[in-house]
């Protein structure tokens, strides 16, 4: 139920955290790889904080999710429901004490460095493909929508936001660089979750792993960056034994990059991770099937019971996605379905239980909740969960379904908004019903702002008179450099 927020006085922090803010618009991928100073906005510090803050909680969620999902049909409604009401939305979810997770105070303008207050009772979370970007290009209204969230709105407030995409295939930092350029804003990895982000929590659980999908060696690099110690790719396996895929020959570049030098038939592959969309469905399916049917993950063996293979993790389960083509394209969920069907057919009826992360899985939304809380604390100095999170998506089966299911159990209100610029086609009945449907992401942002400050009656924060401070020029901001705000 909506409650009418009360106006509170401005809370001005005595000093801002030590910040070095550089433009991600001019940074290169090499900058990211090298870890130099010219990296994206607030890159490493927040990532460290996040990993320290979230590791145990999210790992616990994943462990629970694995048990749940492993015994469920992913298409079943129950697959996205937690087994107990205290899981999502509980204080533990936020990594906070009950006092800390109490409902946020009404609109309390915080004073960031640019002089604009931040709305603290609500936030936004965005899907990317079909909402902000399509076919590698920004959706026209997306740039305006981001400006609006960053303060160019009639209420004069900044609104915290994060990104939650099922896509992947690059490091979070690289995806942020891409998105920063596409949307003409600076985006931090600390406000970004992609499909395979949760897999970083599983590096201690498995030794040698097969990583599938993505361009070239990119996903091997991502996996190693997460901390996986022994990463094998389908290219390594084909290079080791070219008979693995009779009609698939490695290119000269693939031969050069694929690793060799050990007998892979002696190596136990403990888990399979599909990090990004496969570029070779036939070859990747063959290799995953070989391992799923193997004795304990050893290539070249064949189980008699077909239940000894390694676990298979997919970074999401979207059947289709919105790309440059006029019609939707097959996604990772289609590969997953194909693999399970093939396994059933070749084993004459055995079921293959695979595990998917990403939306609409509940742990992904729990992870997003923790990330949003950390982002609001670090960037906006708001140390409490928002009352409302507007989730903007284009796919009813993942975005809307996940948001609605998570909202049934979360303490704060996750409000689903469907846009018409992606997977969902106007005139059709969405498989999962959003609480609002709008033309595009700009209309979605306007909707949220107007609902908060209009319908819900929130007071527009009083504008302070702090002069904007240009962080891009300021470099490191010395403690105490921030003037005290004067209210009027
Ligand atoms: Mg989408």
Automatic annotation (TrEMBL):
<dbReference type="InterPro" id="IPR036412">
    <property type="entry name" value="HAD-like_sf"/>
</dbReference>
<dbReference type="GO" id="GO:0005739">
    <property type="term" value="C:mitochondrion"/>
</dbReference>
<dbReference type="Pfam" id="PF13242">
    <property type="entry name" value="Hydrolase_like"/>
</dbReference>
<dbReference type="InterPro" id="IPR050324">
    <property type="entry name" value="CDP-alcohol_PTase-I"/>
</dbReference>
<feature type="region of interest" description="Disordered">
    <location>
        <begin position="1"/>
        <end position="36"/>
    </location>
</feature>
<protein>
    <recommendedName>
        <fullName>Phosphatidyl synthase</fullName>
    </recommendedName>
</protein>
<feature type="region of interest" description="Disordered">
    <location>
        <begin position="81"/>
        <end position="103"/>
    </location>
</feature>
<dbReference type="Pfam" id="PF13344">
    <property type="entry name" value="Hydrolase_6"/>
</dbReference>
<dbReference type="GO" id="GO:0046474">
    <property type="term" value="P:glycerophospholipid biosynthetic process"/>
</dbReference>
<dbReference type="InterPro" id="IPR023214">
    <property type="entry name" value="HAD_sf"/>
</dbReference>
<dbReference type="InterPro" id="IPR006353">
    <property type="entry name" value="HAD-SF_hydro_IIA_CECR5"/>
</dbReference>
<dbReference type="InterPro" id="IPR006357">
    <property type="entry name" value="HAD-SF_hydro_IIA"/>
</dbReference>
